[in-house]
Protein 1
Amino acid sequence: MLEAAIFQGLSWNPLTDLHELVSYPFMVNALEAGTIVAVMAGVTGWFMALRQQTFAGHTLSIIAFPGAAAASLAGLPLAVGYFGFCGVGALALAGIAGTRQSLSAESAAIGSLQALALALGFLFVTLYHGVLNGLDSLLFGTFLGVTSRQVAVLLAVAVAALTLVVLAARPLIFASVDPDVASAAGVPARQLGFGFLLVLGLSVAETSQITGALLVFALLVTPAATAHRLTARPGLGIALSVALALAVTWLGLALAYFSIYPVGFYVTSLSFALYLFVRVANTVAGHRRTTMRLATEPA
Amino acid sequence: MNRQDPTAVRFEHAAVRLGGRTIWHDVSFNVTEGEFVAILGPNGAGKSTLIKAILGLLPLAAGTATVLGRPAGAGNAGIGYLPQRRSFDSGTRIRGIDLVQLGLDGTRWGVPIPGPNRKRSSARVAETIELVGATEYARHPIGELSGGEQQRLLIAQALVRRPKLLLLDEPLDSLDLPNQAAVAALVRRICHEEEVAVLLVAHDINPILGYLDRVIYLAGGGALEGPPEQVIRSETLSRLYGAPIEVLRASDGRLVVVGQPEAPFVHGDRHA
């Protein structure tokens, strides 16, 4: 049967399967790393969507690729490359945003940076002849070989970054939706925007280590965008964004363990399916509301 | 804060320069608490610039600006501010009530903790939304509301901290005529009931003429202030513009200013 070929080793008994999942240390590491990354991406992604900075986030994820490639070329741990390049990339993006150009000039500058990052990544991969095996996991992610040390680094960075976000939550939301009024009220909107890009850079660097550079959006954007569609309440929205990111990560990891397909594919497809479902449901509900409004409104 | 001086804003011989160009100079006026004053003038005359100077977001090149008893500077908690804007686009996924709440505690660090303080602040938000008549739709995402509904919630946001001074930059711009009159009536009621000084930038004086106490008219790099019937007259405005201006009064009481030259730097400069 087809299922049997795809899902090897699945007993179809949830308890047995769950037990098997957590009985291997590499799988426990992967689940821990995935959980940390999902929480971080869920929170920062919600703010990114609110600030309409998805393009900047996308560029940071592209920058993660040359970071990882440069690290393998230099014989350093991949995490050094991810954090280093995404951090520098965030500074560059903050510099571009700081010049206060028009929005189109800003996206053109960000786009150029993105192309440069891809080209650099390709160069590093070419220089490092033996990496071709690892290329697809740099781009599309892997859950194999996550070490306990890597998990500890992910946790430390996530705790530090999320503490900052929680402390600055209200002024950051204020400055994101209403920059003029926030500045007039004394919120340091520019500095907050700068700080947020750095946190976003860290978040992308973390997420890349599970989903790969190209599929960061599966955890960073799709759960957040779905949460924004479901509710306009800030607290609930952030909680939902995290919950959705956790759900697709756990499910994606489990499916990838038992099947022959890669984890990036599952996480991305699951979050896309969720987003699509919510969008369609929203459209149907919205259509019904409009019809009702039209019917009850006086002519 | 209990001050004897009821003066909310005092400008003395103030001037602002932007990019090497003097926007206006020698501008002097007083606004007292509980007074509803409109800032009028052609495009590019520096109406929004005046608001930003009061907020302390732009430095003065000359003269002094005193706001609520101290020199103008950013972060004055006694000021409620509504900037000029079109509207929130439908992608802004935040509720009206959240926006008003941010006006109250959006500058605070950390997350709100449930308790008596939180209850009090929620009650204040609800009360302010009730005051502007927006309770019915305050829980909808702001981007899905009409221009008039958004404007009421934004006025609530500016009012929620009980400011002594309310600065409204073209709040009527995107509204239809009945809504313009309704918002003007609301602003006047708040102004008198809550003893707030209101400075409102307007493009067209007619929808608000009946509600105003005084006007500040900016044109030709200078300003005039006084009751509308004294300022908006052919000879006064001609002197201000330095060009012949005719003010006509229609049979329904509406004022029409004829022959006003637009300032030379209009293009793309509506926010100046």
Note: The mean pLDDT of chain A is 85.
Protein 2
Amino acid sequence: MATQAIPRENVSPVRGSSLKQQKTLVDAITYFLLALGAAIVLVPFWWMVKTSLTAQTRLFEFPPQFFPDPIVWRNYIDAWYALPVSFTRFTANTIFITVLAMTAEILTCSLVAYGFARFRFPGRNFLFILMLSTMMLPSVVTLVPTFILWRELKLIDTYDPMTLGAWFAWGPSYIFLLRQFFLSLPKEIEEAARIDGANTFQIYWHIMLPLVKPALLAIAVLSFIGNWNNFMGPLIYLNSGEKYPLIMALKFFEQSLSKEAPLFHYMMAMTTMMSFPLLMLYFFMQRTLIEGITAGAVKG
Amino acid sequence: MVDTGSWVQDYSLTLSHWLLVGAAVILVIVLTNRLLQSLGMNAEAATGLALIMPWVLGFLIFSLYPFLTSFYLSLTEYNLLRPLSLDKLPPLVGFKNYQYAITDDPNFWPSIRLTLLYGAISIPLGLAGSLLTAMLLARDVRGVGIWRTIYYMPAVLPAAATALLWRWMFNPSSGLINTILSPILNLFSLGKPAWFTDPQLVLPSYVIMGMWGIFGTTTVILLAGLKNVPRELYDAATVDGAGLFGQFRHVTLPQVTPTLFYVLITSMIGALQFFTAALFITTPREAGTFLQVYIWQQAFQSQKMGYASALSWIMLVLTLLLTLLVFRSQALWVYYEGELQQDGKKRVREPDLVAGTRASQQLSEGQPTPHGGA
């Protein structure tokens, strides 16, 4: 703030005080608007947690309480066992899908990005542009044939469709991000390693990957969130309830037990449980995540 | 009914396949490298091509093949119940599916209308709100990290959670929104709006929910763009006597247009692919269905795979047309410093291309996969 004010006052010392007044006023408006915005963002979160702790009998009271009384922690336990299959299994399913898909994605995307960034081969630019343009393809266009493909392989109702494809470097935006990072590294590092007798794989694994760690982390976070929330995949490929990830359990609950008279206290407990790991991940990895989101959007 | 046996069975099946496919992909990389070198290609080119093999295979299996097949299917009346085999391909019926969608299907135009209106209303509102917030944050406010953390929080929430939460907030009798509005409504002796259950209010409800959900993403991206605006420009503008509005009009706005462009493309594709949230909210029939939801219904509920494929191709064309339109409009409003080409046209930078594309994947739908949702 100070650095901005000083040159201004140097330019026109006469107008200094009125500028200062104006600045105070603008500051006040700024903080007011920011607080208002933050309230709009945060109140629904409060509403979610509050509902998850409200007794069913007090759910539809008007006006609603802004603080649950009594606080019903039991809702979480009841929600956990509300479906014939417990949420232990749903959580395990979600983690299983997420970890497999994420691991394969990070490994292959970084290999492909390294290939695009560091090696000259015929057709490289064409293939790179082609890769970027596949992102334009709405996923729904390939949905039906991809489904038929998995059906012909007799792999419907397994976790395969949600995890195996990750080995084929899905996620062009991840490749793009990693390539940018690889491009920024000096070539001398690899040349030195090569003279010392390291092969391509050793260079990639021991030298290049550690150097692009920030980008790898960003991709890991983005991929974790993406796979955790993936809905279309489980929706069309999974039929048996015990194989559902959390998002499908939520859908199933919403459509069965909660259909006629919505049990919002349970649903909010479930959404809170489903969102909690993501929010934690976000709080601890924000800097990394935000770098990942803004890279490519902003020049420089 | 849940015994640990079934867990182990389910997981080990996929795990073994997963390890096999992983090993196969690595093997393909190694073999391609060897093969190309033995064919006389230089080592660098061979290794490069080998390294991108995972993507090449993925492109062929999960993009190109489904892409072409889906066009073929869109020309047939294929339904899911029949297996698809090469010796018994479903017969071609020409452009009948497309014709039916455009002229006869009573649900087609309403779904296009809902999808486009949703985008046309929520995107400008969202961009304006995000830009304002980002500008406030860029004023060197105290605790910018904390504000940013708060504003981005909704974007981390799963789309399903957002949808259920807002359905509950919009509950006509005891939802939070109507509780807050009730003093105002009582003042004008108006009834409580029914939001998602009132056909007239479905669209505004979706818009409000959607804005809350993706607000943070756009704000964070625009903030990063604003932080890149050189300080000297503001100082120069002040010297020239520009007030706050002048600074906005002549410095902030032009400088931030490339970022705005990126966000516009991203949100546009996101809006067109609006899906997950819609499946968690029951709305009246008359309000229409989002295009992608309608395609999914046709494919997997009515089993009309051919018709669904035709609809998805219409969606593809629509996406391409709109993207092209926005790309073309760049020359009118996007300001690229020092990037004028000789012919005076503004060059499209690589990140802008990605812009379009990174799209909804992470931002609004949370789907990481461009390959057919698999």
Note: Chain A touches chain B through 136 residues (CB under 8 Å).
